[in-house]
Design goal:
alpha/beta; Rossmann fold; 4 domains; GMPS_ATP_PPase_dom
């Protein structure tokens, strides 16, 4: 998997036999949209464009692409030209997944339409150049014909052979571990899930037992008897597990959130741009890493194996360009403390960040307790390809948006990665592939088929609060919903809150509410908790 803007020269040196251009949220007409080396299409190498990839191919060759009146998202039926080598063996009608806003209006010169939905072009082909495009997503299970399409492209059109076996993937992981670890010791944080257990099995197959330090951290948010299961399952692999009960640490966990804030400041006319930037701690056009408290905090943590929380936000990075007196906008990079987990934290993304950073801090304390050499110790993680994609890791994409931060791709882990001290043998695989690797390694089905359970555990799924959360309007809101639940009886006499309800409800809604509450005994309560809104 490579960035789309990889130069053709680099691609040709690697001797790739085919290319697939994947989807993207971009539009081919955006000035900053991602695009490939234009010489790629003249390289006489088969190319399949998926969604955005099809639109890009069509535009490059002169076809028309336009923004649609409405998006197409969901499962749609398409009509297929089964004489096309791309659709060989398919039915004339197939169901596929669309997720796009732009549409190909006309096919480029030299291309023919090989698939249509009710209103749009769904597939194009230039058999002579071996260039193909589909507007839908054959790589997902919801496109039931997708696997067959990919097989047709790779095996029939590109003349490749499917001789890469599961044993090859296992050997790939083993060589990856052996090359990265050498004779060093490696720490693996075990959650008990499929990913970390498969990683542990790979380590056991590759390294001497004396090199492996397996640690299971009970964060207090795991499934019932989870820790006992972890220890017993890995004991069968010959791996001794160090159990760390750190539930209270996670409940009181905090971290720093790095944010850029647009603000304004009053600058005297005598202050030059260079001086304004010098006084604020940065040089023009550069970013001094050491002036960032978050980075300093992380680095000192790794160097000293201790962690000290910083709440001083006065040392901020300011980017100003003052040309004279008056008020000028500028950006301040601030480090905002978030947490502790048990009280004020309600947002899942904040919880993931707190729990991920706390995991690494606890692991660093384990290094010290076990008298390990932190300068040579490696960290093994069960990071999968989707984890990197959702966290917008540069290892997966140069231009990804963060979907959610995973506990194993946090700031502290990223610093360890820069030092070359993180081993992620499963980072090229998806969950179904990891399960297959587990079976190849001989793991029991009870482990391989375990239901996915995130590292942060129940902390993301439950409300973390030690005290009731009561706003100033709590009493009025409580009275209001009680009046709604007993509307028929309450409407018999005037009340200020009754007027508020009637003002918000249409006459027919008032009649229906009265009818419902007349025949039923209803009770309504406002919970004294604060949570992220849920739409049902």
């Amino acid at each position: 998997m490579l960035p789309i803007n990889t130069p053709l020269e680099t691609l040709m040196k690697a001797d790739y036999k085919a290319f697939i251009i994947s989807g993207s949220p971009d539009s081919v007409y955006q000035s900053m949209s991602c695009t490939c080396d234009p010489k790629l299409f003249d390289a006489n190498i088969p190319i399949l464009g998926i969604c955005y990839g099809m639109q890009l191919i069509n535009k490059v060759f002169g076809g028309q692409v336009m923004e649609g009146d409405t998006r197409q998202d969901g499962i749609f039926q398409i009509d297929c030209d089964t004489t096309s080598p791309l659709f060989e063996g398919l039915s004339k009608q197939e169901h596929v997944l669309f997720t796009h806003g732009d549409h190909c209006i006309t096919a480029a010169t030299g291309f023919k339409v090989i698939a249509k939905s009710s209103s749009n072009i769904a597939g194009i082909a230039n058999d002579e150049k071996r260039l193909y495009g589909v507007q839908f997503h054959p790589e997902v299970d919801l496109s039931t014909c997708g696997l067959k399409i990919l097989e047709n492209f790779l095996f029939n059109i590109c003349n490749l052979k499917g001789d890469f076996k599961m044993s090859d993937r296992v050997e790939f992981c083993i060589s990856k571990i052996r090359e990265a670890v050498g004779q060093n010791k490696i720490l693996i944080l075990l959650s008990g899930g499929v990913d970390s257990t498969v990683c542990a099995a790979l380590l056991s197959k590759t390294l001497d037992p004396s090199q492996i330090i397996a640690v299971h951290i009970d964060n207090g948010f795991l499934r019932k008897n989870e820790s006992l299961r972890v220890i017993e399952s890995l004991k069968s692999l010959g791996i001794k597990v160090h159990l760390i009960n750190a539930g209270l640490r996670f409940l009181s966990g905090t971290t720093m959130l790095h944010v850029d804030v647009m603000t304004e400041a009053l600058a005297p006319a005598s202050v030059s741009p260079a001086k304004a930037q010098s006084d604020s701690g940065i040089s023009s056009g550069t970013s001094d890493e050491t002036s960032d408290p978050n980075t300093k905090e992380c680095r000192s943590t790794l160097d000293s194996m201790t962690y000290s929380q910083t709440t001083d936000t006065s040392n901020t990075k300011r980017q100003s360009h003052v040309s004279g007196g008056g008020i000028h906008p500028h950006v301040e990079s601030r480090n905002i403390p978030i947490g502790p987990l048990r009280t004020v934290t309600i947002f899942p993304e904040d919880k993931r960040q707190i729990i991920g950073d706390t995991f690494v801090r606890v692991a660093q304390e384990v290094w010290t307790e076990l008298q390990l050499d932190p300068s040579s110790l490696m960290l093994c993680q069960g990071t999968l390809r989707p984890d990197l994609i959702e966290s917008a890791s540069h290892l997966a994409s140069q231009r990804a948006d963060t979907i959610k931060t995973h506990h194993n791709t946090t700031t502290l882990v990223q610093i360890l990665q820069k030092q070359g001290r993180v081993v992620e043998p499963l980072s090229d695989f998806h969950k179904d592939e990891v399960r297959q690797i587990g079976r190849q390694l001989g793991l029991p089905e009870a482990i391989v088929n375990r239901h996915p359970f995130p590292g942060p555990g129940l902390a993301v799924r439950i409300l973390c609060a030690a005290e009731p959360y009561i706003e100033r309007d709590f009493s009025e809101t409580t009275s209001l919903i009680k009046m709604i639940s007993g509307y028929h009886q309450m409407s018999q006499k005037p009340h200020a809150l009754l007027n508020k309800i009637n003002a918000a409800a249409r006459p027919e809604e008032q009649q229906r509410l009265s009818k419902i509450t007349a025949n039923r005994s209803l009770a309504a309560y406002v919970l004294p908790i604060r949570s992220v809104g849920v739409q049902v």
